Protein 1
Amino acid sequence: MMPIQILIADDDLEIAKLIKIYLTNEGYQVLTASNGREAMDVIAKEPIQLIVLDVMMPEMDGLEVVRAVREAYSIPILMLSAKAEDMDKILGLTTGADDYMVKPFNALELLARVKSLLRRSHYLNAQIQPSQEQDEIQLHALKINKKAHAVTVEDRNVNLTSTEFDILHLLASHPGQVFSAEAIFESVWKDKFLESTTNTVMVHISKLRDKLESELGGVKLIQTVWGVGYKIDP
């Protein structure tokens, strides 16, 4: 079995070296890039399964890299930044990152988040589907294919991150059921819910809604049940 390949893109060589040591010790194969363009070159050539990405980099910054990656890939992205403001975190997540950590960070926490992202990314492949109906769900013109990890509208691909896909599939596979932010977080992120993570769920729901409404001509697929959570009606 081939080891999981992780790309570290950071122009701070000391930080990149530290992260590489921790990930290598866990058995991951680690590649590095010191700027955004180099990172994109690596992604084009190697089967990268997760990206640890600094925001401030030369040539292409981290946000530019996220946008470029999301045009063609659903690779999980963990962003790193020295900026601790909430709006910086929200910008990173709404651009397409799956998680966000502020420098300086605890290396063991970073490792835990990497493992959590990889669990979510590979969760699909570990599941045995109970029926064919679970493999493909159709809502209006939207088709969700879990085996292919693909979402289409009238044969047009809807470009979702792995996190957005998992949220959509969770809600769509339980039509009419209301899921709280806590239930969504623990089901999708496979991690313990904290009050501070409510905003993380809200940001991903908002981004997912925007993409779906754009493709469905304004149809509001995901409904908010105020004070309770979110649902998709049958």
Protein 2
Amino acid sequence: MKKSVGILLLLLIAIGCENSDKLTFEPLQMVGEDCPVCPKIDINIPKAIDDTAIAKTINRSTEEEIISYLSFDAEEDIENLNDAIASFTDSFKELATRFPEDNIGWEAKVDGKVVYENKNILTLAMNTYIFTGGAHGYASTTFLNFDKTNAVELDNWELFDDLESFQKFAESRFRVQENIPEDKNINATGFMFEKDIFHLAENIGYTEDGIQFIYNQYEVASFADGPIVLTLSFNEVNKYLKNKIKS
């Protein structure tokens, strides 16, 4: 019996040590005004609640990303999410007043979640849908990668030791996935890479399945093609990463 209790205590200690590397989040939900002439706004994101520098960086970066979705005036001074929601609402109300015959409801929906975390790296995925009139709205996914040790957000190039070699490898895997012959132009099957040259997606993130690229709609293909997703296992890409992942 004592042996069993000892094993259980060791297991609980191991779990505690593992969880100590993880940040603590709580759900944050914000909605817009509820009125007949108001746009529909629904924001659901994780908020880091640890009293640490990295928690503050994550929350500020997340907030800035949402502000960029909801703001239509580059000159407008928007400092927080409440201001961003008010700005989006005011923009719609102004348009509805000027063109009441074209009064089509606007919509903004943001869902964020942590898709990867270890002791060094944390990645948030922001899934967004924005509709401000026209034939259809625009859905996109944005990855936000963070260096937990240095409490900074990382640009894509900062994820890799040898970006040029990684890009060549990623192109070869992209061609295999999308059935593009090696001896053909990257746009031979209908893609729309600028200047007929492969480039990495604007959104690259760590996930449990590996490094994932998401080419959002219009980035390299038509709207009808939807997002183009490429996932490369850590076993494949570890040699290119600054932060290696143990398999």
